[in-house]
Amino acid sequence: MNRTPHVAVVGATGAVGIEMLKTLEQRKFPVGKLTLLASARSAGKKLAFQDRQQEVRELTPASFAGIDIALFSAGGSISREFGPIAAKAGCVVIDNSSAFRMDPEVPLVVPEINGADVLSHKGIIANPNCTTAITLMALYPLHQAFHVKRIFASSYQAVSGTGAKAIEELERQVSQVVNGQPVTREVYPHQIAFNVLPHVDSFLPSGYTKEEMKLENEGRKIMHHPGFRASITCVRVPVYRAHSVAVSAEFEKPVTVESAYAVLRKAPGLDVVDEPSKNLYPLPLQAAERYNCQVGRVRMDCAMENGLAFWVSGDQLLKGAALNAVQIAEELLKRS
Fold this sequence. Notes:
By secondary structure, the protein is α/β, with parallel strands linked by helices. The chain contains 9 helices and 13 strands.
């Protein structure tokens, strides 16, 4: 791998693409050359990177000649079409969509957990689902110490996880409600302002949604733990940025709050925020725009043996997407 790689960002004008650019710059990733790619309608736009304006080009099958690393965040259909083309051109694709996550040939990586898996790539590396990544930042260190059997969880997912139009919808609806106007909706099937929707992604015949199954399926692959089980209800909440998850986890080995704290305080990419007497616990407002996830409300679970309940918050545009992708690229350079 070139030590100052030619990096492409596919979907550069989207919410995650913009965060990828910011993250590359803030973390001083050694970008030798940068190519910004997006749809024809975004071609010609200019985005700032390292005090220079970079022009966005239209994504075509010929876009990947000479590129070393391509960070994809343009949706599953674009990834499925252009990911293999980029890989064939000799580029390593780090894909933020769900297109390749469960492909046995494609590593699914959270660098703090299974960074070494990047070495097994065949041209494509997958970034996990945002809720999965944020949950595992707290769950995996506990799994290493106490071996998790199963979890029951509920997510509280910000509207920015759906995209820019969902942010606009929440802003518009808040204004409509406050001003006594009729509420209009385009993105979600129900009003999201002052409401919560137990519906993220499409429903499966089982009654779970696709989003809800990702935590179990992706968690097994990332943690190398095929017996891991997760029952989760994913909920969209009227929060702009940062997801939160309430988790009850059952472990094989005995666990105490003190032993859990000792593990969590050493975990990379995680801050313990847990002083209920001072009203200190993870909040999406505090987790937003921060690299580290936050864990708190740690307590013994009173409904299971060797059970622990906790609450974790994290910025789903960062650890759930852009930051994790850039960390994978850093891991590639470090290990190549």
